């Protein structure tokens, strides 16, 4: 069983433009989709499509449309009842794959609701193999929420993955090594935030065939207690660093359509490969195949196993 937590779930409304976005102008859209979202929900959806047991944990009213959407997809969930409905996020995707996201803050959670949410995650994690903590935190949730959860989950023997940004990410790292997860998935901006590196240089160097800067930044986090750091570098692929070694994976050729859910799909791919007993290079290969497949899909659609192109993911051991 894999458990995902989405503290700030959303209904993701994606509008596909048939021309580049022109600020201040009236534009028509060629299509609109609405999907249940939030990073943990996206991870759960991708895992469910792979046929692996997964439960999504989230705060939501019993009557919220996001729960109806999850039921329609067949994704199992457990909720903490809240009064206010989940947020609605708007994504604009341009023909070249450029993605603009407008995210609402989400409903305010009281201290009591925060504790109920944490307790539900711990309850569901008993006997699970992985817990994935993903996304932003809504108003009312302390920045160190993920750090606190990692500490509460550790006695259960479950593996923990964290994918977040900004203050929650910094608070997690500030609590290393006590709150160091089994997998941390920063993108280039987040690696830069944590290590003082330059995000554009990380991606550009990797694209030019030299991912050493991204590896060095990731290794500094492994040295602080994280079991594995998977740094995603956009079109330049990803690096994976553990105490045993480092690897870079170049993605297969795709036509990019939307970056929504690409990072979430990468996390799903990694965790699925780990549950399947795969070694580190193949965990990275599967993760990059999942992320690339998501980027090739329109809107907030997520990949299924038949969408993957693992054969053309090139993994290089870096030592």
Automatic annotation (TrEMBL):
Q: What is this protein called?
A: 1-phosphofructokinase
Is NAD a UniProt keyword of this protein? Answer: no
Gene3D superfamilies registered for this protein in UniProt: 3.40.1190.20
**What PANTHER family does the annotation carry?**
1-PHOSPHOFRUCTOKINASE (PTHR46566:SF5), 1-PHOSPHOFRUCTOKINASE-RELATED (PTHR46566)
Q: Name one GO cellular component term.
A: cytosol
A Pfam family it matches: PfkB
Please indicate if the UniProt record lists Transferase as a keyword. Answer: yes
**Molecular function in Gene Ontology:** 1-phosphofructokinase activity; ATP binding
């Amino acid at each position: 069983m894999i458990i995902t937590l989405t503290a700030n779930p959303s209904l993701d409304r994606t509008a596909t433009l048939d021309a580049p976005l022109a600020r201040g102008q009236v534009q028509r859209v060629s299509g609109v989709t609405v999907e249940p979202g939030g990073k943990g929900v996206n991870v759960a959806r991708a895992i469910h499509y792979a046929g692996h047991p997964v439960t999504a944990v989230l705060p939501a009213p019993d009557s919220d449309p996001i729960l109806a959407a999850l039921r329609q997809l067949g994704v199992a969930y457990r909720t903490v009842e809240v009064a206010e409905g989940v947020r609605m996020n708007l994504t604009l995707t341009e023909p070249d794959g450029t993605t603009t996201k407008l995210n609402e803050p989400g409903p305010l959670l009281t201290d009591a609701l925060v504790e109920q949410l944490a307790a539900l995650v711990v309850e569901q994690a008993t006997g699970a193999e992985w817990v994935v903590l993903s996304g932003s935190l809504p108003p009312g949730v302390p920045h160190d929420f993920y750090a606190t959860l990692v500490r509460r989950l550790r006695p259960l023997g479950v593996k923990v993955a964290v994918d977040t940004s900004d203050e929650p990410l910094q608070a997690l790292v500030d609590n290393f090594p006590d709150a160091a997860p089994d997998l941390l998935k920063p993108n280039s901006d987040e690696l830069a935030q944590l290590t003082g590196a330059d995000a554009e240089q990380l991606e550009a160097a990797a694209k030019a065939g030299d991912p050493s800067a991204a590896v060095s930044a990731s290794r500094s986090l492994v040295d602080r207690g994280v079991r594995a750091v998977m740094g995603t570098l956009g079109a330049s692929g990803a690096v994976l660093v553990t105490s045993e070694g480092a690897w870079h994976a170049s993605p297969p050729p795709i036509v990019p359509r939307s970056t929504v859910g690409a990072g979430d799909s990468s996390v799903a791919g990694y965790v699925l490969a780990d549950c399947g007993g795969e070694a580190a290079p193949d965990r990275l290969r599967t993760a990059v195949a999942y992320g690339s497949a998501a980027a090739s899909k329109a809107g907030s659609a997520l990949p299924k196993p038949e969408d993957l192109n693992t054969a053309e993911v090139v993994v290089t051991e870096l030592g």
